[in-house]
Structure formats: structure tokens, C-alpha cells
Amino acid sequence: MIARRTLPALFLLPAPAFAQAGDALRELAPTGRLRVGIGVAPVGSAFWTRRGPDGRPQGVTIVLAEAMAAALNLPLDLVAMNSSSEVTDAVAAGGVDLAFMPADAERAARVAFGPNYFLFVSTLMVVPGVALTHADQANREGLTIVGIRGTTTLRSAMRAYPRAAFLEATSVDDAMAALRDGRAQAVALGRESLDTLLPQVPGARILDGHFHATGTAVAVPPNRPRALALASDWMERAKADGTVRRALDAGGISGPVAPAGSRIGG
Q1: 171 phi/psi in degrees, rounded to 5
Q2: Helix, strand, coil shares of the chain as percentages rounded to 5?
Q3: In the chain, is it the N or the C terminus that has fewer CB atoms within a 10 Å radius of its CB?
């Protein structure tokens, strides 16, 4: 667990509206600290963080977590995990108070989602020799696709390509190893992650099109309506005042901020 208490002034939000939150604040952070689950991987995205030169994770979700904690005047604990399924499990069980993660129906049955802050698409990266040019062509026998176990992207790929074979990896590193050693011919991930990973496999290509599009959203444990309302209000304010855009820019993410009111599915 990584404790953070400071925040660059660039990302501070006015907090008067939150100072009197009372019951909602206690429901959101029952320990008196804001515990936020983050995913750590070799590449960054609107969800994934990656470790910097000092070994500490850095990325979009950390900037958002710091901004929210500052607005709520709460000390922040960042809880690092290796997969989005671990983050989902932690939110569902109340082991963390909040997370920012890709939204889908399966997760929505376990956690309470607020507004999207980013819209993204998922597609495939294929190794040399795979005669595909578009994501629509990948529903074929003889193709093995690797994805990260328990993720929205892998579930969507399985629905989109029922004739393909699938390999479930525990992390992005494991997925890329499967691609390099020939156990899989394609990897299913978000487009922004694939852009970063492409140089790791000489001759690999990212297919045109996509098999899945959704939003990345703020989420809290189930049955905490006041906490969800507080987190949702903060997220809409953060989108409107540029906090989310600055967080994405700092993480090298050029895709769009989700529009006001955007929910699961975009």
C-alpha cells in the first residue's frame, strides 16, 4: 500500500461543497482515509498505472485519486494491484473505498459505477504472419488470443470471437510473454495500451477497427448510495473544470474525456 498526502496545485479542486458532506463522506471513507485501488502494469492507460524510475506507480488514476482526496480533505491510501479483476474484487468487498476502472455489465453487478471519465476501444495486436487487417476478421479457428483474466476486454473478445481459442493471462507481462513465445498469435487490450506495447514484438501489427467500446468510470462498493452520489458529483465537476483532461494529458492519453452524464457503455 502506498500512502500519499500531497498534491500538485494544478490538480486541486475547490472543496467547500464537500466540506459539509457529513454522512456521505463517512460512507465513502469509513476509516477516515480514502483508500483507492489502482492497477499497475508495464504500460499506462486511462486505467493502468506504471512504475516510474523511483519504483512508485504513476498515471491517470493516481492523479484523479489525489485530486479527489484533496477536494474531500482526506488522507489518501493507494492500494496497488496487478489486474483489474483484483481491483474489482477489492471494491466489491469494501477492501478499498473507491476505484477508477473500465465499466461493464458484469462489474456493475458487483460494484456501483458512477460517471465515465474516459471512452476507449479495445482491439487486437497480432504477431507477424497472421493474415488479418481488421478486428472484424478475427472470429476464426486456429487463432489463439491472449487477454488478462477477469477483464472487460477479455470477456468482450470471447463474445466477439467464439470460434477463436483463448488464453487467460494474469498480467500484461504474462500476456506479452505468451505472444512472444508462440502460445498466442494475438493479444486483446485497449488501444492506448497496445500502442505502447507494439515495439515489444518486432513486426507485430495493431488491427484496424475494434471489438469493444466502453467507458472507464469511478466506482464504489455496492449499497453505499451517499458515497456513490458524492463520488459521482466530484467526477462530473472534475470533467467540467479540466481536471480529468489534465490527468489524461499527464498520462500521455490523447483520447476524449467522456461527456457529461456518460455512463456504462459510453
Answers
A1: -160, 170
A2: 35, 25, 40
A3: N
**Torsion sign across C-alpha atoms 221, 13, 255, 260:** positive
What is the tens place of the pLDDT at every residue in 118-142? 988 899 999 999 999 999 999 999 9
Residue type, 73: N
What is the DSSP secondary structure assignment for residue 134, as one 8-state letter? Answer: B
Given a contact cutoff of 8 angstroms between Cβ atoms, the answer to whether 87 and 152 are in contact is: no
Cell numbers describing residue 213: 467500446
Calculate ∠ Cα 69-70-74, nearest 5°. 50
Domain residue extents for the chain: 2-119+215-250, 121-212
- Which amino acid, 75? P
8 Å CB contact between 39 and 90: no
Closest CA to 179 of 163, 162, 197: 197
Alpha-carbon separation of residue 29 from 6, 14, 227 (angstroms): 18, 19, 8
- The pTM (predicted TM-score) of the whole model is 0.71
CB 80 within 8 A of CB 22: no
Domain 121-212 is in which class? alpha beta
Q: Matching CATH topology for 2-119+215-250 and 121-212? A: yes
pLDDT tens digits, 152-187: 899 999 999 999 999 999 999 999 999 999 999 999
Give the DSSP letter of residue 222: T
Instruction: Decide which of 3.90.70.10, 3.40.50.300, 3.40.50.720, 3.40.190.10 is the CATH code for 2-119+215-250.
Output: 3.40.190.10
pLDDT, tens only, 32-79: 999 999 999 888 889 999 998 898 899 999 999 999 999 999 999 999
